[in-house]
Design brief:
This protein is mainly β. It has two domains: 77 residues, Chitinase A, domain 3 (Roll), CATH 3.10.50.40; 49 residues, Thrombin, subunit H, CATH 2.40.10. The chain contains one helix and nine strands; from the N terminus they run βββαββββββ. A hairpin with a 3-residue loop joins β7 and β8.
């Protein structure tokens, strides 16, 4: 039986949960995700978990932050003047704002808090610093 290896394109059904059991993402009820192992298009721990699986195999893995979205970095949280945010934007804590970096790349920030003068934004990935558990099922190897 064939096992998934670096360079293979695979299709995976998965459900991702946090430490408290909250589901943060899932392919349940939709198409499986497809990616090429080794291309870096998915978090390293997920790729490692899929490598060596056979079609139809199921397993559950927990991935530490250093193999997922990294540790939470306090330096990526900052306050910006409220005037830097468009007036017509109805700010809410938890909403994601997009901007452009100085080199023209898109970046995202999560609004943590705000008042009339300041907005606290967080540039960390929402899952940074978290241990992520994935229930995996390998559907296909291409």
């Amino acid at each position: 039986m064939s096992e998934a290896k670096i360079g293979d394109t695979v299709k995976i059904h998965y459900t991702g949960t946090l430490e408290d059991g909250t589901v943060f993402d899932s392919t349940t009820g939709s198409e499986p995700i497809e990616f090429r192992i080794g291309d870096g298009g998915i978090i390293p721990g997920f790729e490692t978990a899929v490598t060596g699986m056979a079609i139809g195999e199921q397993k559950t893995v927990t991935i530490a932050p250093d193999s997922a979205y990294g540790d939470y970095n306090e330096e990526m949280t900052q306050q910006v003047p409220r005037s830097a945010i468009p007036d017509d934007l109805d700010l809410k804590a938890g909403m994601v704002l997009s901007a452009e970096s100085p080199d023209g790349l898109p970046i995202s920030f999560t609004v943590k808090a705000f008042d009339d003068e300041q907005v606290t934004i967080d540039g960390n990935h929402p899952l940074a610093g978290r241990h992520l558990t994935f229930a995996l099922e390998l559907v296909a190897i291409g």
